[in-house]
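Researcher: Next entry in the queue.
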Amino acid sequence: MFHEFSPASVRPAGWYRDQLILEAKGLSGNLDKMWPDVSDSAWIGGSHEGWERVPYWLDGFLPLGFLLGDDDLLSRGKRYVDAILARQRPDGWICPCEDRERADYDIWSCFLIGKVLTLYYTFTGEARVKDALYRAMKCLHGMMRAGSIRLFEWGKARWFEAMIPLCFLYEEYGEKWIRDLGKLLEDEGLDWNTLRGEWIIPKQEWSFERHVVNIAMMFKYRAAADVLAGEPVSDTLAEDLWQYLAQYNGTPAATFNGDECLAGIGPSHGFELCSVCELMYSYELLYFITGEGKWADRLEKAAFNALPATISNDMWRHQYDQMTNQLACVAFDPDRSPFTTNGKDAMLFGVEPFYGCCTANMAQGWPKLGLHAFRQEADGIGVALLLPSSLTTEIAGVPVRVEIETEYPFRMSAVIRVTAESPAAFTLRVRIPGHAVSYAVDGVPASGRVLELKRTWTGTEEITLTLRAAPRLVERPNGLSVLEYGPLLFSLPLEVREEELPRKEGQYIPDTALHTDAEWRYGFASDRFEVIEKDGDSVPFSSKAPRLVIRTKLARVAWETKDGFDTVAEDTPVSPRAVGAPEEFELWPYGCAKLRMTEMPKTE
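Model: Structure for this entry, 604 residues:
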């Protein structure tokens, strides 16, 4: 229904595999060993949280294990699936609460575990998993039809997340009740298209309607619901809502300021890690459902900038909130924070800074990206992302393998290798990123936003794709600009001084604050940009040795910190007028610069 290949057919390679290995060795790969909300969760019979955290974690941990083919990860994931299924009630209820508590249990987690079981089944094909999912959703349908449970709070805001398991079940069974449940959920859920007035001006109060993670999930709601209902699918509403939110809350990384509710347009407003991961998934599904390349372009922006920027090199620590212009990552005074609704620790790097949702949910970001590298086409195979990876499938009974060998986004070329064990006629479509000024195939200039190669494939054939991209200054609100090259944003990196904070009671790893003594008050002083490729190190988005930099000139400008905050820059400088001679700098990819200035003025 979503034009997805079996996730079991995809394997990572190159830098992307290195990134997944870092994740497996880091926080997401070890939460079940050290974090009580996972290791002692009520989902597996323990005494800790029995709602979103285990399903959030499994949604990334399970595909991580399958993509890497890691037996240890797979066995640990299976233990959780087995424990969850063993506790399913005879009537199908699957969430960990007493029967008498069902009416007061927010069933958002039921939608989420439904997504997890759908994903696990597509990897394993285990009939017991599909049966458990069927019974869980059938129970939900019966209780909603009878009025014994209802949507409220998170379930009301995120009703459309149930469309993922329901679409799978309808494709498998085609039973009327499945679509009926989708309609019941939509009728009780928030109508997001009526809420725009809530998104214009940041408010110092919390609400479901302005919650940035709800909004990140929301973009796919109409398309996913229409797929289930069998209605014509369009991304018109999603695009309209995206443009509206970008106008008032957008960032250059194709994300939205929200800490944790919408926070406005400035570069010194935070945005939450959960929202980055959920936006990526929304972009993935929207591209796969509609085939519109803009969603994949936005996916690249979020994945290659915002995601690595807010997680440490070893992936053992993360932030709750990141800022586009980020001068320090410190704890603020409890009574005075630059955020709209988040707490004082939200910018620290740690296991659970401020709140634990991102601790669990960050696991899905990198693995799900790889699951969406290839799109199933009616007449063949689509390369959705130039991500180093491979797909093994069959076309008309013929085993076919497609490999992508590339260092993109750090380099602007890729070799696509197609192997067919016997002659196979199909079309290979390659999405050309929207930033490409032009491109060539095997050295021959080509045109169009989709490269179509329709032929009978036999043996192994190679296609060399070369993109031409140009560094460009892109205007941002309030007289600022941002430097882009390919899908990457570039920032002035600020030298980092780390401070490990005293370990709090129950902390497995202490939080870390980041400070700098570097000058940060600069603007762009040249329109000349020299792209320099480097070797980097073993970390793809390294904060020590980036694989790509851009050399240019910046000049000092008058710029103040926000009133009452020594480490938060005002959204705009006092003036774009240069107050010093131009100086030469190497700008780093945004995802590599943990402390950075990204949105800056053009100097006068």
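Model: The chain has a mean pLDDT of 97.
Researcher: Noted, moving on.
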